[in-house]
Amino acid sequence: MNDPYLVTVEEELFQWRKKLIKKSNMLQRVSKKAQTKVNEMIPEKAHSVITESIKKMVQATLVGSEYTTKGNYPNGMTLQVKEKLIEDKLTVYRRTAAAEGAGTGAGGFLLSLADFPLLLSIKMKFLFDVAAIHGFDTKKYEERLFLLYVFQLAFSSDEQKKKTFEIIENWEEKKQKLVELDWKVFQQEYRDYIDFVKMLQLLPGVGAVVGAYANCNLLDHLGEVAKNCYRIRILRSEKGRML
Predict the structure, then answer these.
(1) Domain carrying residue 38
(2) What is the pTM of this model?
């Protein structure tokens, strides 16, 4: 591997893997208990909206045209160029998510509820752009399924992360056996991951600040996971062609 950028990528991937599979720290485990208390303060209507939003997002991702990107990117771009484009896209999506989170958070309970499907849509559109920049055809069912596994890897518990990461890391072999995603597990993992911070957005007085901050951080986290998932696919594909 002569390209200095690819050497750096390999090292970053190694460090990211270690961080990904490391057990949650004490603060994160304690926050889970606090999260349960916050959830009890939120009306059932909110929980219903969140669950239904996630279900519809999964269905739209797998069979719909809602998230299909129209971007046409030239063939032959280096990984470094692709990742710069993705970084630029992420900056745009972060601004959109922050503005949307602040606006809905400041608007009270009903507008805060609207944040959940809106943020899901922003996240999925970003992932479709990432796939398109890397040259993967998101009209194919398997590519849409891959995006959902990337999403799940970003927003799930320690135990589920390990299972999902194994699928991502061995995608070419695993995809042959995968028919569809278990959306109930998907939505529960997502909710458990984001509930503590995002549910605070529904509470009076702190909604706008929490909304903007949380949305930015959630997009940043998704961007890091997506970048590294595609790095794994691309590097494995390149090595496979060299063998």
Answers:
(1) 4-242
(2) 0.84
